[in-house]
Write a structure and sequence with these properties.
The complex is a heterodimer.
Chain A: H1 25-44, H2 60-82, H3 94-127, H4 135-156, H5 166-169
Helix pairs in contact in A: 1-2, 3-4
Chain B: H1 2-15, E1 19-21, E2 31-33, H2 35-52, H3 58-65, H4 74-99, H5 110-119, H6 123-157, H7 161-177, H8 183-198, E3 200-201, E4 208-209, H9 223-241, H10 262-284, H11 289-304, H12 317-332, H13 334-340, H14 346-357, H15 364-369, H16 371-392, H17 396-402, H18 407-426, H19 429-447, H20 452-475, H21 482-485, H22 487-504, H23 506-517
Antiparallel strand pairs in B: 1-2, 3-4
Helix pairs in contact in B: 1-16, 2-4, 2-16, 3-4, 3-9, 3-14, 4-5, 4-6, 4-12, 4-14, 4-16, 5-6, 5-12, 6-10, 6-12, 6-13, 6-16, 7-8, 7-20, 7-22, 8-20, 9-18, 9-19, 9-20, 10-11, 10-12, 11-12, 14-20, 18-19
The chains are: A mainly alpha, B mainly alpha.
Chain lengths: 170, 521
């Protein structure tokens, strides 16, 4: 939470976004999201076959659980409306952003560029996730870890994995 | 009785087996190595490591190491994963006592008296009692698994689909009642998990469900992918919120005098026994697991103590009881998995994942068809506990030094390990992206106080539940009352309903929260 409130004026205390009559905004929003997920699942499974005779169709169980989740979502929403509860938590942007970016970069680069470059880049990008990173030690540890992984996964564990960029290997 | 001994003998035989090992770089020379013992040691070491390091949990670690076990034989893989689980219970106590940081949720209560003891210069006895208690609990629960294993398996074989479905419902209800937080939200998470497990092709008709013609979703969401997302990545993102520099007040003084005094032993012996009993029971119950066991044991000790005010000021019972309880529970939670094929908590759910990867369908038939797998694992637990005492007591200094590794270097390493691990399962980059998406989902869930563990449990049990529900209804010709008319099933369902009502009653909810309250004070 340390650096969240200081970024931009629009990120002030989030609790004022919700109207006062919602007494537990955390549960209220959580419940609404569950309802949305349930409705989405109902829509996504609407083209599947339902019951025929005594036997389940492909769509029976998904619809059953979706309806159940819908009910639970409504219940959570109501609890959020009528009982005093926690306010919405504040979200940091730095951690989620850079960790997601690093995961994404790994997924994109692992095939064309190979493990060595991909892992090292992932390490550096995810290290951006905190302002406490000291680059010198991060780069040293990154190199060491990349070397360790390049040995462990393809050789130690025998997993088929390309180490170097494709265009170099050819 | 003779069965029991022959079973255990088989188990130890499996554990001490030598297998020829001929790595490519030795050029065809094969050397015999005790593979299972080594894997047990690796598991115990890794477990201690993650137990010591805060910010990386057992579930995330087991998920991370799942892909690594692909190349191993199934027995070895399970022995190693089990070692991580109970090893973490040992390791968690070390940091609780020495630096007031619980490495694992199961050691949270140990900080209360353990750290106080350390401050009074009695860190050595506290560590020793924690290890001795854990070892005692480990021995008792190993025997318990061996004794209960066979009869429970016989019972399970008598189960029809209706009973199985009811048992799973009961298990899931237990899991929500014994967990921390809102019962309603936990159930919602289970159902969400069940829904996620439906993605992919239907087992019976082969129809593609909720996959939107995305080829990577055709086989369903990978279990390890989701687990690593909601536990691995989400944990990291959450920890980064709090700032990477975690407050680490190291107790710098040297630990002297490891051995507890005679008085310590006398004081803690009954507490160890009580903790073991309580932990064993709570571990067998579905959903129980080690966390609640440690809290309950502490609360219990405080209640029956002649002078409760000593607690929180360095009472040795406050270390002995929860540490024995969490280790006992960690091990007895294998009982439902091995005998009924039903995972009682999220770590066991991952063990199911590991078994399925190796083509083993967990359930009562495993114990009959692959006895060497089950008994080998049980025997390995005892061996592993012995190793852990050695790993933990004399080497405690090394583990504490590890705490100085700053989180700012640890978390990018975990990200890479997770990413490579997920990629290696199917060599599919899409899986990595999916895990990232689940990481963000997990972060959102944490922010809204939804527990991710029930979600994982629901996801594992989803296919099993659907299959048994389908079969039960097919056999009964569509009559849904079958779950209440078959006696065994009716008992299970009634227990589930009873528990649910109890959990929702305000007075009982208060009691339940009281058990967990120690952590906040």
């Amino acid at each position: 939470m340390s650096d969240t409130p200081s970024h931009g004026p629009n990120l002030g205390p989030v609790k004022y976004i919700m109207p006062k009559w919602i007494r537990g905004p955390q549960d209220f929003v959580g419940g609404i999201a569950l309802i949305a997920i349930a409705l989405f699942a109902l829509w996504a499974s609407s083209d599947l076959q339902g019951m025929h005779g005594f036997s389940f169709g492909a769509g029976t169980a998904p619809r059953m659980f979706a309806v159940l989740l819908l009910g639970l979502g409504i219940a959570v929403t109501i609890v959020g409306l009528v009982t005093e509860g926690a306010h919405l938590a504040t979200y940091a942007w730095r951690g989620p952003l850079f960790v997601s970016l690093s995961i994404l970069s790994f997924a994109i680069t692992i095939r064309p560029l190979g493990l060595v470059i991909s892992a090292f880049a992932t390490f550096l990008i995810s290290a951006l996730g905190t302002h406490e990173t000291r680059w010198k030690e991060t780069i040293i540890v990154g190199i060491a870890l990349t070397a360790f992984c390049s040995f462990l996964f393809p050789y130690g564990l025998g997993l088929p994995m390309q180490l170097w960029p494709r265009f170099l290997v050819q | 009785m003779s069965d029991l001994f022959s079973n255990l003998a088989l188990g130890f035989h499996v554990v001490f087996q030598f297998v020829p090992w001929s790595p490519a770089w030795l050029g065809g020379v094969s050397i015999p190595i005790p593979a299972n013992i080594l894997l047990c040691l690796i598991g115990a070491l890794v477990g201690t490591l993650v137990g010591v390091l805060p910010g990386i949990g057992t579930i995330a670690t087991v998920a991370m190491l799942l892909p690594i076990t692909f190349g191993l034989p199934p027995v070895g893989a399970l022995i190693m994963l089990a070692g991580i689980y109970y090893g973490a219970q040992y390791g968690g106590s070390t940091t609780s006592i020495l630096v007031n940081i619980p490495g694992e949720a199961t050691s949270v209560v140990t900080t209360l008296d353990g750290f106080q003891m350390a401050k009074q210069g009695r860190a050595g006895p506290a560590l020793a009692i924690a290890a001795i208690g854990s070892f005692f609990a480990g021995c008792v629960s190993t025997v318990l698994i061996a004794v209960l294993g066979a009869p429970l398996t016989k019972l399970a074989l008598a189960f029809g689909p209706a009973e199985y479905f009811s048992l799973m419902v009961l298990g899931l209800i237990f899991a929500t009642v014994l967990a921390k937080g809102s019962v309603l939200k936990a159930i919602a998470m289970i159902v969400f998990g069940l829904l996620l497990s439906m993605v992919g092709s239907d087992i019976e008709t082969g129809a593609s469900r909720m996959a939107f013609n995305i080829p990577e979703l055709a086989d369903g969401l990978g279990f390890a992918t989701v687990a690593m997302g909601v536990f691995g990545f989400a944990e990291i993102i959450r920890n980064l919120d709090a700032g990477a520099e975690m407050d680490r007040d190291l107790v710098q003084q040297k630990i002297t005098g490891l051995m507890p005094t005679k008085k310590d032993m006398i004081d803690s012996a009954p507490a160890i026994v009580r903790g073991t009993i309580l932990g064993s029971i709570l571990g067998i119950l579905p959903g129980g697991g080690a966390v609640i066991a440690s809290f309950a044991a502490y609360t219990f000790e405080k209640k029956i103590a002649k002078d409760p005010s000593r607690f929180g000021r360095g009472a040795i019972e406050g270390v002995a009881a929860p540490e024995s309880a969490n280790n006992a529970a960690a091990q007895t939670s294998f009982i439902p998995l091995l005998t009924l094929g039903i995972p009682p908590n999220a770590v066991m759910a991952l063990m199911v994942g590991a078994m399925t990867i190796h083509g083993i369908v967990p359930g009562p038939q495993v114990m009959q068809k692959q006895p060497e797998l089950v008994w080998g694992m049980i025997a390995s637990m005892w061996v592993g506990n012995l190793m852990l005492i050695i790993i933990n007591l004399p080497l405690v200094g090394i583990w504490v030094r590890l705490l100085r590794v700053p989180y700012r270097l640890m978390f990018p390493s975990i990200v890479i390990f997770c990413a490579i691990g997920i990629y290696s399962i199917n060599n599919a980059p899409v899986d990595v992206i999916l895990a990232g998406a689940f990481g963000l989902l997990g972060y959102w869930l944490i922010k809204h106080d939804f527990e991710p563990a029930p979600l994982l449990l629901g996801m594992v049990l989803g296919p099993l539940m659907e299959e048994n529900l389908r079969r039960a209804l097919l056999i009964s010709r569509g009559d849904a009352t079958v779950f209440f008319t078959r006696p065994l099933s009716a008992v299970l369902m009634a227990t589930a309903a009873f528990l649910l009502v109890l959990a929702l009653l305000p007075s009982l909810r208060k009691k339940r929260d009281e058990v967990f309250v120690e952590s906040e004070t």
